Amino acid sequence: MIELRNVAYSYGGGELFSEISLSLGPGTFHFLTGPSGSGKTTLLKLCYGDLRATAGDVAIFGEDTRRMSRDSVALARRRIGVVHQDCQFLDHLPLSENVVLPLTVAGRAAEAEGNLMDLLRWVGLGAQAEQLPPELSGGERQRAALARAVIMDPDVIIADEPTGNIDWEMSQRLLTLLVELNRMGKAVLVATHDLNLIRAAKSQVQARILRLSNRRLQAAGADL
Amino acid sequence: MKVRIGLLFGLLAGDPQADKAVPPTGFTARLTVFTSAAMAFLAVFALALSLATDRLATRWAAELARTSTLRISAPPDQIDAQTRAAIRLLETTPGIIAARALSADEQRALLEPWFGPDLPVETLPIPQLIEIVEDEAGYDPLGLRARLQAEVPGAVLDDHTRWRQPLVAAAGRLRFLGLVAIALIGLSTAAMITLAAQAALAANAQVIRVLRLVGARDIYIARAFVRRFTLRAMIGAAIGMAAGMLAVAFLPQADMAGGFLTGLGFQGAGWLWPLTIPPLAAVVAFVATRAAALRTLREQS
Known about the structure:
The complex is a heterodimer of chains A (224) and B (301).
Chain A: E1 2-11, E2 14-24, E3 29-33, H1 40-47, E4 55-60, E5 63-64, H2 70-77, E6 80-83, H3 95-105, H4 115-122, H5 138-150, E7 156-160, H6 168-183, E8 187-191, H7 195-202, E9 208-213, E10 216-220
Parallel strand pairs in A: 3-8, 3-9, 6-7, 7-8
Antiparallel strand pairs in A: 1-2, 1-4, 4-5, 9-10
Helix pairs in contact in A: 3-5, 5-6
Chain B: H1 2-13, H2 16-21, H3 26-65, E1 67-72, H4 79-91, E2 96-101, H5 104-115, E3 128-134, H6 141-151, E4 155-158, H7 161-203, H8 205-213, H9 218-249, H10 254-257, H11 277-300
Antiparallel strand pairs in B: 1-3, 1-4, 2-3
Helix pairs in contact in B: 3-7, 3-9, 4-6, 7-9, 7-11, 9-11
């Protein structure tokens, strides 16, 4: 579904990383780890078309991103659920409307009827549906972001430090939700520097662990 | 054009879901409504000026084209005889409907603005004026001048051509300036709305990021801003137009004070022209905001 072949990314005259190859197929689960500043977030942005590689090939659902128009990227993004560390929301809209937003922009808001409350209950936010995002805790916002990411029934879930601002118990709940989604056949890519989370995941899912450091992507996990 | 108009109506009908994505922005909303109202107010006056000068040019051209004046300058004992001879000659000239010597009262009225009301014109050696009314085809001025020279040596024919043409040209230029003013008002409105739209887009960068993240196309994001600015511009222009029309309606009437400026205003169906200002402001806002939004979104990507 998402293929990176010999990808490099440079900015400001310096190379952030190069020779990166990665394949996110149906039902795969990847953890991406590495030190701060190694380029994890940039690599994720390449995967959902927010940035273009400076070298190499990136294909999203079979389409070369170099030839994709902005509209094509937008349409592809409807098949990719993204969870950000800082959980960007529209702060003037209640949680329910924020979660439905992907369907709204796709002109399919009517499809949310009935399913929305089930989804909010699944992430444990049934009682917070009408609250505004600034009124939610960090963990609630992370789960809301996950609900928004999956409401379109995407093929791929990409999460950037999804447990960065939440406690261990909430991290476990979020991990469980991601594992459930993966079992439904969705490709999951999680960037994190939370090694405890990765260790906890090992018992629940067959995950491939990748480490981005020194400008290269390598398999890791034996030491975890 | 048809597609643009359809798009405009589609926008005005709106998509409540899309509209909600952008939070209401008080400052740019008020700025757009105020600017639009002020520009529409000015546009009403520019329109009134343009229409008034158009009427004036037409009237001057028509009235002056059909009248001429014959001036008899002769010694006092010959003036009556020469006047009668001139009128006889004029009455037999093809293209002239009527020729009439102005009375002493009429000549006094003509001189009154310069010499006051008590001028004893009968005792002064002033020329006798003869008013000539032409038919549609008019007369041959060269032929008439030649005959007058032979039969009425003290007569000077003034067919008004000398001063009619600059007056009509001046009125035409005023009308053109009115239209230029309307065009400048339209461009200024577009510039102001573009700036307000860019400010709104910059203030809502976070909203745009979120919308992009969830798969919104540029046109969807732009539409939320465009509809808002189009409506604001139209509402503002409607307010400005109403105020402008009231101001024009309450200008002093020509018969009360006289002069050119008091003739500024609308007549008959001319009152319908200002009604085109709000929809035109909406079109200007639509085009300006759409271009600004799509350009900004392209630059942000």
